[in-house]
């Protein structure tokens, strides 16, 4: 855990030196330190950004910079970017292939529970068929399990406060339904 | 010119793949895209004015400016509809919800798909003439699917409004872009899914965004240039109204007026972020030069604590002057709505009986509440409302943190689905949903263009859902007949002079019914949800009925990518 933190610290330093970087590759070099060389995050609580929807990635960077989404790690990183940088970075990562994290499929009973909860709130109305996302709505299918659990918990407590609508929906869904959803979504 | 042609060609063959948006939903097929051979004569305003008497074409989203969805042709009739069969099936490149109303001009059909693609097809053979694959901006914000409900043609241009909130004119023969105008900023929650209405060189358009704290509007743009001509804010600067405590049907809405007044004194009029999207086309009264439309829910949907007052003109019928966009009249169905039981299904202009039995120009609307409301066109006042078409229970219990059960659920009643009318029979035909839900409230401040629901509506998994097709006599308010369906219904319906109504279901069934009795006369299984409004037209002396089978995002009905046309042998 400590080692990981140090590594992230090093990545931050590295990035500070590159603040005036020109090319998109320079700008995104630092991201790999945590979000992974081939798109596989180095830690289970770090989200997949390769192959994620561009609109969503942009909005998250914007929200980190504005402080609407709190993160000690991501806030200083996003602060250096202007709107155009964020759009370009978002486009860059959205074009990368979504990595297969090799997470197991949810067992039948868990999947059934997840689908019933999903139908009750209507998750696919926004996250679309097979949870692929679109525009500013994220793909959830195959997202890291621990990250999903963490961010859903953060929505519920409003520790993640950048989308009160999502928080409302998570609060209206019971914790054990959400646990089933996490397992189901991770295994898609 | 050449360069332009190339660009259009690129759009026709590949941009869908590059756009990055929803790659998974797009079915790529190698297709020979032939450009420039949609041989359509220009559509004149006179033709549009007379669309209600024209059985050859289907020129407007809801058939004609009155929006009756009454098709005047009767080659397909009660007697022979049993012989209806598939003429052709066209597969689009986008496998996602289809809500398009096919437009037909002289044997050329225009359909749209999710993500704002447009196709021109040969209406006789289903052969593709051109394909406009919209290059979507990265930022799209919408509530209920990446839907598009269609286009309209005037002159030699096809008008389209896109999910990333642009208004566009395309060349009707080639699909090339003639002009593009930004309507509003998607980053603040604005999006477009409706078809424009084009009349007298004006392109009329509303906006979505009631789940994002927008300030809604209806606008007119110059059809030739794309320049804005007028803007009507659906939320006036004085949105407080009359502190109505009862809904249009006289039921108490349990408002805490004193608490609202205290809040008003504290925060002032909440008009700037109050929502009020306009989902569907306005009706145009050519005789009086007025338009009629309905305005959707206030933002946030379920939490009224930060929006004191009646929240005018949300959940209302509104009429404007067509030339100036100036207010004429309104009627609010539900003041200070906290259930999202708003007004979305398009208005219809028909002659109706007033309270004294005199025939007058009327306007009718089917509400999410499950009533059909009948109004006097002169001043928007309510003449009557129909019997409830769906079960209503516990209205209007206030949403709670734990969730309060009330029927209808938040999709209605009647969703955005257009109704049809048969003036000869004085009947309106609506498709209904029955989805028991609980309403939950949570309170948060305006989140800068993010989803702002103020709570949640949840389907109760243990309760059975269903749907209906309902025929209502709008001069008595009585239900004439009702057909039960196994699932809630969303999409639309068409009535014809052949004595039929056509509508589809989420399970893929598409059927024709006797419009006087509701007796089922023919049906077909499309394999994907038939959740789009049907159209009808003539080509080569034969009548066709056409409908999209693409399923539905909102109710998660099975997706497909088929436009299916039917005819008789």
Major sheet description of chain A = none
Which shape of chain B, going by the Cα principal axes? globular
Largest interface: A-B, 39 and 41 residues
Please provide the count of β strands of chain A: 0
Oligomer description:
heterodimer
Radius of gyration of chain B: 22 Å
Shape of chain A: globular
The biggest sheet of chain B, with number of strands, parallel, antiparallel or mixed sense and barrel status, is: 5 strands, mixed
Strand content of chain A: under 5%
SS content category of chain A: mainly alpha
Number of strands of chain B: 36
Give the fraction of residues assigned to helices of chain B: under 10%
Number of helices, counting only DSSP H or I runs of 4 residues or more of chain B:
4
Q: Approximately what portion of the residues of chain B adopt beta-strand conformation?
A: 25-35%
Tally of DSSP helical segments of chain A:
11
Q: Helices and strands of chain B: which structural class?
A: mainly beta
Q: Which bin fits the share of residues in helices of chain A?
A: 55-70%
Mean pLDDT of chain A: 90
Could you describe the 3D structure shown?
- The complex is a heterodimer of chains A (188) and B (569).
- Chain A is mainly alpha-helical.
- Chain A has 11 helices and no strands.
- Chain A has helices spanning 2-17, 24-29, 32-35, 54-66, 74-79, 83-94, 108-121, 123-127, 145-157, 164-171, 175-186.
- In chain A, helix 7 (108-121) crosses helix 11 (175-186).
- Chain A starts with a helix and ends with a helix.
- Chain B has 569 residues and is mainly β.
- Helix content of chain B is 6%, strand content 33%.
- Chain B is built from 4 helices and 36 strands.
- The longest helix of chain B has 12 residues, at 2-13.
- The radius of gyration of chain B is 22 Å and the shape is globular.
- In chain B, 61% of the residues are buried.
- The A-B interface holds A 53-55, 58-59, 66, 68, 87, 90-91, 94-95, 116, 119-122, 124-126, 128-130, 132, 134-136, 158, 162-169, 171-173 and B 20-22, 24-25, 96, 136, 138-146, 163, 187, 211, 403, 440, 442, 444-445, 447-448, 450-456, 458-461, 553-554, 556, 559.
